[in-house]
Amino acid sequence: MKRFFFCLIGCLFIAGCSSVPYSNRSQLLFISEEEEARMGSVAWQETLNTEKISNDPFLNSAVQRVGSAVAAVSERSDFKWEFKVFASEVPNAYCLPGGKVGVYTALFQYTDNDAELATVISHEVAHAICRHGGERVSQQTLQAAGAELIGAASSDSELAMMAYGLTTNLAAILPFSRTHELEADFVGLLLMAKAGYDPRHSITFWRKFGSLGSSKLMAYFSTHPHGEDRIDILNEKMKEALELYQKSEQKGVGTVYQKSDLKGAY
Ligand SMILES: [Zn+2]
C-alpha cells in the first residue's frame, strides 16, 4: 500500500494527459500503465486463489475462442492475455489491466451464441484498453485525497480488487461512470466488429440482459450502470461498426449454443 501511495505521489509530478483509443477523449492519469498492469496481475492471482474455477469444456473453449479473437484485434499485443471461467451464479465478467479476462458461468444464461458473448467480452476489454480502471483509481484518490479509499483497503491488491469491482463488498466497489460505460459500449462494439462478430447482436444481448430484473443482475449493474441510452449509442455507432465488420473475417454469430452445451452454466 505504501508503495502504491509513494508511486502515486511520484506520478502526480509526471501525470499527463493521454487520449483514449477510438474516442480520443483525453484523460488524466496518476498511475502508469505498468503499475496498473502490476495491480491487475496481483488482483488476478488473488482471484485465482479464492474463486472457484470452472473446468466446463464447452464454456472454457467459448471464452478462449471469443476472448482470443477480441484480444487479437485490440492492438495490445503487449498485454499478457489470459481467459478463465469462474463458477458463479452472478452473471458478470471483467478484464483487468494487462489482459486478464474472467467470465462467470451464470453469464451464459444470457448468451445464445459467440457474437453475444463477444459483446460482453469486448465491453470489458474496452474498459481495460481505455484504462478506465486506472482513471477510476486516479479520480477517486484525488477526490478522497487518499483518505477514504486508501484507508478502506489494506493492500495494493485490495485496492485493485475494489477499483475493478471484484470485491464481494458492494459498498466498496468503485462504479464505472456513465462516461466510461458509454465509451466501453462504443469501443466494445468496434472491437467485436473488427474481430468478425456481427455487431448487431450486441443489441439482442443487451436487450435480453438489461430487461431482466433479477436481483443477481444488480451486482453487475452496480459496477456497470445501465442506462436507457446504451441501445441508442449502439444504434448511433452501428454504421461505423458495420464498416469494420465488412472488412473483417466475418464469422456472423459464430458458434450457436444449444441448451445441452450450457449444462455448466448456472
Ligand atoms: Zn462496463
Task: Please specify the SSE layout and strand pairing.
Layout: H1 2-14, E1 16-19, E2 26-29, H2 33-50, H3 57-72, E3 82-86, E4 93-96, E5 100-104, H4 114-129, H5 132-144, H6 147-152, H7 156-163, H8 178-194, H9 201-211, H10 217-223, H11 229-247
Parallel strand pairs: 3-5
Antiparallel strand pairs: 1-2, 4-5
Zinc ion is lined by residues 123, 127, 176, 181, 184, 224.
What gross morphology would you assign? globular
Rg result: 18 Å
Strand content: 5-15%
| Cα separation of the termini | 36 Å
Report the strand count. Answer: 5
- Topology order in helix (H) and strand (E) letters: HEEHHEEEHHHHHHHH
Q: Helix segment count?
A: 11
Helix content: 40-55%
What structural category arises from helix and sheet content?
mainly alpha
Largest sheet: 3 strands, mixed
Please tell me about this protein's structure.
The chain has helices spanning about 1-15, 35-50, 55-70, 115-130, 130-145, 145-150, 155-165, 180-195, 200-210, 215-225, 230-245; strands at about 15-20, 25-30, 80-85, 95, 100-105. A hairpin with a 6-residue loop joins β1 and β2. The relative contact order is 0.16. It is about 55% helix and about 10% strand. The chain contains eleven helices and five strands. The strands form two sheets. Strands 3-5-4 form a three-stranded mixed β-sheet. It has about 270 residues and is mainly alpha-helical. It has one domain (about 30-250). It binds zinc ion. The site of zinc ion has 6 residues, from α4 and α8.
